[in-house]
Design brief:
The protein is an alpha+beta fold. Helix content is 54%, strand content 12%.
Length: 598
């Protein structure tokens, strides 16, 4: 029950009338004209409705004390956290080994098949230590093809255990394809051209060619395929290779077998005289045949991982069903509560009161359950069947975000304790102000971003695209790499050099000294408000006023273990002369136990 001094004024309702049971009169115009039996009946309905709502909004510990109802949803979440985290750790280890292995093989292929490749290009340095690998002359283009074909023909020179994609290890023919405009003739001497933007392609195999004397220029000419560089958009040399990874082998795991689809790409889309040269290697897992000295049918590791995946999918499915059912029943109870307020007090339940029945934590749990189920199913397919590099990334995205939300959900249970609930309440209180403040700050940020991209883009490597410009400005807000941003600016245009100084000084001063300070003050203001609420009491909406406070003695007294459900059905039906409430209430009640929500 709530004491009168704890109750807040309710809009559109009398502020000076208190019922005999210390519940405010929510604008009931019929209250003074009711007969004594009706008033008694209303008091019984109010008491039973209040008790049901009090039990509904209890946390699992209080529900256990009130009705000795086992908190199965809480236990499901704890088990899910353990299983999902174990699954993520194992998958993260395997994914790191896989990505690192495929990347190292790509570096190896670059050394074997790319003319001009050196070790300085293997590390992403800032600022870049070398320019892009590219060809600028016709002879360089054909020499690059000759070098790649020579490396492909002499795999025995490679340290890595690479083989051809053939059961007898006979070299298959590599395939050369060119993509070009249907017509692209340039006559620069008289500023004329012939152009058709439709892209066509043709391919040819390098067949029956001696690796030592192979000349791609002459070979393409002999087969009637000439390369028109003025119309060429892209050229590719493609071939597959097989290899086996012994490092993946362990006490219960066999080695992994791979096929790499290697593509050497000449990118001429810009038609600026610089044809970029790079290599791609798409991995595919193959089924290893093993040998006589190794356990060829070792399935222990796969079985254990499959069991873990199935358990995760099962526990997440249970969690999904329970939380979905809880949300559905909460909405049914909200409908009954709204009808009760409408009939008993002749008013609608407030918007804030309705929001009390929407549990955001349940929605977040449902989202992470869906993500983890999808990620676990994809993980099972990856570990069983052929896969590509992108499938690993998509799977890790599902599992990573799902696990992130799972651990965020732990905050819900910490929120049951007053000391740990400060962060959640502060974020909840500050969220509207932060949103309004961010809208204004983002407008200023967008203006600086577009201006910097337009003016400084051609002269500063950090402003060459809209994305890099935004990343650069966000880094400056956090005090990262300020001097480098100033010093990298090209001095080709003195006017723009001075503009860059004014631009950077004004942006840094505005955002670090003004915007960030205001942002922190918004958070601190919400924190101070929460501290004041802890001292003086939190404001209550009409639903919270109706429910009142529940003491520890009431929860532990056994009051909520009484068979009040059927009596509430009968009382509401007889008082309101309508069976709808009894039917709807019985849906969410189903005996006493079914309202035991997390």
């Amino acid at each position: 029950m709530t004491s009168p001094e704890e109750q807040l004024d309710v809009e559109d309702g009398p502020k000076d009338e208190v019922q005999s049971n210390n519940v405010p009169n929510y604008g009931n115009s019929q209250g003074t004209s009711r007969s004594a039996p009706n008033s008694t009946m209303l008091a019984q309905v109010e008491e039973k409705m209040r008790r049901k709502l009090q039990f509904f909004f209890m946390n699992p510990i209080e529900k256990w004390q009130a009705k000795r109802k086992f908190p199965y949803k809480f236990v499901v979440q704890v088990i899910k956290i353990v299983l999902v985290t174990l699954q993520l750790c194992l998958f993260a280890h395997n994914r790191y080994n896989h990505v690192n292995y495929t990347w190292d093989n790509r570096i190896t292929f670059s050394h074997l098949f790319l003319l001009g490749w050196d070790s300085t290009r293997e590390i992403n340095a800032y600022p870049p230590g070398a320019g892009p690998l590219a060809v600028y002359k016709v002879d360089e283009f054909y020499n690059s093809l000759d070098y790649a074909y020579s490396g492909y023909s002499n795999l025995t020179n490679a340290i890595g255990p690479y083989s051809y994609n053939d059961e007898n290890n006979i070299k298959p023919d590599p395939e050369f394809c060119q993509y070009y405009y249907k017509k692209g003739i340039i006559n620069g001497f008289n500023e004329s051209y012939e152009f058709n933007a439709e892209i066509e392609y043709n391919c040819v195999n390098f067949t029956n060619v001696d690796a030592k004397g192979f000349k791609s220029k002459q070979y393409l000419k002999d087969v009637g395929l000439e390369v028109d560089f003025s119309a060429l958009v892209r050229a590719e040399l493609k071939f597959p290779l097989k290899t086996i990874n012994f490092r993946a082998a362990g006490p219960i795991t066999p080695p992994d077998c791979f096929r790499f689809d290697v593509s050497i790409i000449f990118d001429n889309e810009d038609h600026d005289g610089q044809m970029s040269l790079y290599l791609e290697a798409e991995p595919h897992k193959l089924t290893c045949k093993g040998d006589k000295t190794y356990v060829t049918d070792n399935k222990i590791d796969q079985i254990l991982r499959s069991i873990l995946n199935i358990l995760v999918i099962l526990i997440c499915s249970i969690s999904l069903i329970l939380c979905s059912r809880a949300i559905y029943r909460a909405q049914l109870l909200k409908g009954i509560t709204c009808a009760f307020f409408r009939r008993a007090y002749n008013k609608e339940l407030s918007f804030d009161g309705r929001l009390e029945f929407l549990n955001i934590w349940y929605i977040m749990i449902i989202v992470n359950d869906i993500l983890i189920i999808m990620g676990s199913a994809m993980k099972e397919q990856i570990e069983r069947n052929q896969f590509t590099y992108d499938e690993w990334n998509v799977c890790s995205l599902f599992l990573g975000i799902g696990n992130l939300l799972v651990w965020f959900g732990v905050l819900r249970y910490l929120g049951f304790f007053k000391t740990y609930n400060v962060v959640i309440l502060t974020l909840k209180t500050a969220a509207p102000k932060i949103f309004r403040f961010s809208c204004c700050a983002l407008l200023l940020y967008a203006g600086f971003t577009f201006c910097g991209w337009l003016v400084l883009g051609p002269y500063h490597m950090k402003f060459r695209s809209l994305a890099t410009t935004s990343e650069c400005l966000f880094s400056l807000i956090n005090g990262d790499d300020m001097f480098a941003t100033f010093s990298i600016m090209s001095k080709k245009s003195p006017m723009l050099w001075w503009f860059s100084r004014v631009y950077l000084y004004s942006f840094i001063s505005l955002y670090i000294y003004v915007v960030l300070s205001l942002f922190i003050s918004v958070i601190m203001d919400a924190y101070d408000t929460i501290k004041q609420y802890y001292r003086e009491g939190f404001p209550k909406n009409d639903l919270q006023q109706f429910i009142g406070e529940t003491s520890f003695e009431e929860v532990s007294s056994g009051l909520y273990r009484s068979q009040s459900s059927s009596s509430l059905n009968t009382t509401m039906s007889s008082f309101f002369c309508c069976n709808f409430y009894r039917r709807a209430y019985s849906k969410i009640n189903g005996g006493q136990s079914n309202v035991n929500l997390l």
